[in-house]
């Protein structure tokens, strides 16, 4: 069980088992590798899309690509702690883990049905083990607008699924977000915003308010704001290479 000291050097990126290896305990390896690929894939695509721009337009490919290592290496360290603890409890030959297996676990067994009956506790455990609780709150790509949108997932969090109303029809949020690219979710009374080649704008008719949530291609929130401010939003879109290109004069 180990993780690479670096996930990127120049144009070389490590992902999956090349970047980290886990114990089979809790089954973390495949999900982690897939999330590495999704995280890196959209950033490579957007870096290519913004290749003709520079810092003067708010885009720096180094910031975008560098965020892969900072986001996914932190996630890998968290997985290592979980899998190491599980493997230690299951297989270590030390006195304490042996006592846990031989004495503590049998004594605690009668409480398991009670714990499994607590739906919130079980749901939270499932989210942790399935990596739905992985977040990128400390990433340079996670931006809180002014004023912040309270009650919504924080920038860096994975956007949870929910029933939403879009274009007069009810549907599941994750199904609505299936189209590749960035999605701007406007609350019901938010000011209209333009879409673009990489940006889809959706208005949620069952969400009162004037705010917006910008969702990255990997399903994590990148930006949120209680007022649909086009200036702040454009700054965030430029940061990830998704802002519309400025028109070129004759």
UniProtKB/TrEMBL annotation:
Instruction: Write the record's keywords in alphabetical order, separated by commas.
Output: FAD, Flavoprotein
What are this entry's molecular-function GO terms? FAD binding; oxidoreductase activity, acting on paired donors, with incorporation or reduction of molecular oxygen, NAD(P)H as one donor, and incorporation of one atom of oxygen
Q: Which cofactor does it need?
A: FAD
* Signal peptide (residue range): none
Q: Does the keyword Flavoprotein apply?
A: yes
Residues forming the FAD-binding domain are: 5-77
PANTHER family, sorted: BINDING MONOOXYGENASE, PUTATIVE (JCVI)-RELATED, TRK SYSTEM POTASSIUM UPTAKE PROTEIN
Q: What is the name listed in the Swiss-Prot or TrEMBL entry for this protein?
A: FAD-binding domain-containing protein
